[in-house]
Amino acid sequence: MTEQITVATYNIHKGLSPLNRRLVIHDVREKVQALNADIVFLQEVQGLHTKHENKFDDWPELAQHEHIAEGRYTDLVYGLNATHKHGDHGNAILSAFPVINWINRDVSHHRYEARGHLMARIDVPGWKTPLTCVCIHLGLFARSRKMQVERLIEFLQEASHDGPLLVAGDFNDWRAGASGTSKRLREALGLIEVFEHANGKPARTFPAMLPVFALDRIYVRGLAVEQSSRLHGKVDGVNWRSMSDHVGLTVTLRSGE
């Protein structure tokens, strides 16, 4: 019986430093694996980028989500959202538990921003009901985000999964509480944002060097929150804030069943 699970969400900025000058995907891999989280939600993951592959000598042979997962995560899914002449990028979910099924739903609002909701149902050992996970990266414009939140609600209501639910990722929600996102998700799906529930407001995660905006979120339903924290500061000589323009989040959860 798995009584607790640890979850992390991180916008990896395509494996490049905040100013795109250095390749940091190997540091990201090392630090993400060191977290020992059971499930990891990743945004801005590059499946392929031939231009960067030629620019950086130590560009990994595997797609970025596969590189991060190698040797630690048995099940991984990649939601390809955008393609370009050099390759593609999207969201990913890495799991130490079996993924039963998954789907990536296109929720692009306009042709200049390709977005998707990546949903995976995960079989956590000993849990009566599979855990439904959705990794998201919402648009840069308020109208896009509003539409994409409504599509998320429709998506999950259509799926008709009444068990534990976890939604995490980069919400790009610059207005935080004033946007009404948390209220809408709570009323429609019974979701609570873990940092907002504990501290009265979501965690500030952007920009990483001096976080002001609460862009990254973790929402849960049917799960008890044991502990939550931001991924910042130095770990073994590497500063999390130097690996992306976003601060990652982690939470330890217990099944409510």
Task: Give your account of this protein's structure.
The protein has 257 residues and is of the alpha+beta class. The protein has one domain: 4-Layer Sandwich (Deoxyribonuclease I, Chain A). The protein has six helices and 14 strands. The strands form three sheets. Strands 3-4-2-1-14-11 form a six-stranded mixed β-sheet. A six-stranded mixed β-sheet has the order 5-6-7-8-10-9.
Key features?
14 strands; 6 helices; Deoxyribonuclease I, Chain A; globular; alpha+beta; six-stranded mixed beta sheet; 37% strand; 257 residues
Could you write a compact summary of the structure shown?
The protein contains 6 helices and 14 strands. It is an alpha+beta fold and 257 residues long.
Topology (elements, then pairings):
Layout: E1 4-11, H1 25-35, E2 39-49, H2 50-55, H3 64-69, E3 75-84, E4 87-95, E5 99-106, E6 116-122, E7 131-137, H4 142-159, E8 165-170, H5 181-189, E9 192-193, H6 194-199, E10 216-221, E11 223-231, E12 234-235, E13 238-239, E14 248-255
Parallel strand pairs: 1-2, 7-8
Antiparallel strand pairs: 1-14, 2-4, 3-4, 5-6, 6-7, 8-10, 9-10, 11-14, 12-13
Taking the alpha carbons of the first and last residues, their distance comes to 12 Å
The biggest sheet amounts to:
6 strands, mixed
Assign the CATH topology.
Deoxyribonuclease I, Chain A
Query: Helical stretch count?
Result: 6
| Total number of distinct structural domains | 1
